[in-house]
Write a structure and sequence with these properties.
Blueprint: H1 2-73, E1 75-76, E2 82-83, H2 113-117, H3 140-170, H4 173-176, H5 187-198, H6 207-227, H7 232-254
Antiparallel strand pairs: 1-2
């Protein structure tokens, strides 16, 4: 009986030991599994972080590729129009002022021919009709009223510009010639005159009006070029371009000054 009792005690003791051993192993397995999962999560986070770090580079490269593709396909005018040709302040007329900013930010009338088309316009010979091909229709009464209101100021502007040659030849053009913004040139009056002759409520802002503004802006820029010229020859060259711009402007307006409207303007020789 004693032997049997001892045997049962030993079995019970062994069973407890095995339970402790297996329990420890299970606990260790769970710990190892938890640690493994934690390491996997850390690894995934690192991979994700590295992928995110490349994302801005990939986006930038894509945007750069799009910009390069657009540049290859064409150019933008200052007004934001995409064109499939060269754009520049002297493209179309090498005598146009090189001091014009590419964004058209240093002129009197921002919205002009260059703003819309991104190129310079050719000079117009006095009393020619080849360019522009057509002129917008504006009622003769409107043109008559405009000529009556601004006609004398246009003549004064023409005379003022013509007289600059004397200052240039005298050699004191940098100090004695008024700046482009001086009211004596009446350049804003030229713009108002063009508005009355080349646009109406029905037509809105026409391409011909933008063209006239371009010529006025060229006069404006060339006066500044005269003042900043390094020598007399350079100043005379700028003045000659300003005279061509004025004559081009007058030629456009003379085309629509009929006998019912009034007398045509005289050109600068």
């Amino acid at each position: 009986f004693v032997s049997s009792s001892r045997s049962r005690s030993l079995e019970k003791l062994q069973s407890q030991k095995l339970t402790k051993i297996h329990g420890t192993k299970d606990d260790n397995s769970e710990t190892e599994l938890s640690h493994c999962n934690s390491e996997m999560m850390k690894s995934r986070r690192k991979v994700l972080a590295k992928s995110m770090s490349f994302l801005p580079i990939m986006v930038s490269a894509t945007l750069l590729s799009d910009v390069q593709s657009s540049s290859a396909a064409g150019s933008f005018t200052p007004g934001g129009t995409l064109v499939d040709r060269e754009v520049g302040v002297t493209v179309g007329n090498p005598e146009a002022s090189p001091s014009r900013k590419l964004d058209n930010g240093n002129v009197l009338f921002t919205q002009d021919n260059y703003f819309k088309f991104g190129v310079a316009a050719p000079w117009i010979e006095p009393d020619t009709t080849e360019f522009p091909k057509t002129m917008p229709f504006v009622l003769s009464q409107q043109r008559y009223d405009t000529l009556k209101k601004y006609g004398e100021r246009v003549k004064s502007s023409t005379q003022m510009l013509n007289n600059l040659e004397e200052n240039i030849k005298a050699g004191d053009y940098a100090k004695t010639i008024p700046g482009s913004d001086d009211p004596a040139y009446a350049l804003r009056a030229l713009g108002l005159f063009a508005n009355g002759f080349l646009a109406s409520e029905n037509t809105g802002t026409t391409n011909e009006l933008l063209l006239a503004r371009w010529y006025i802006n060229e006069i404006y820029l060339r006066i500044g070029d005269i003042k900043s010229a390094s020598n007399g020859e350079e100043a005379l060259k700028a003045h000659d371009a300003a005279k061509k711009a004025m004559n081009s402007y007058l030629s456009m307006l003379n085309r629509v000054i009929t006998s019912k409207v009034g007398n045509k303007f005289e050109y600068i020789l």
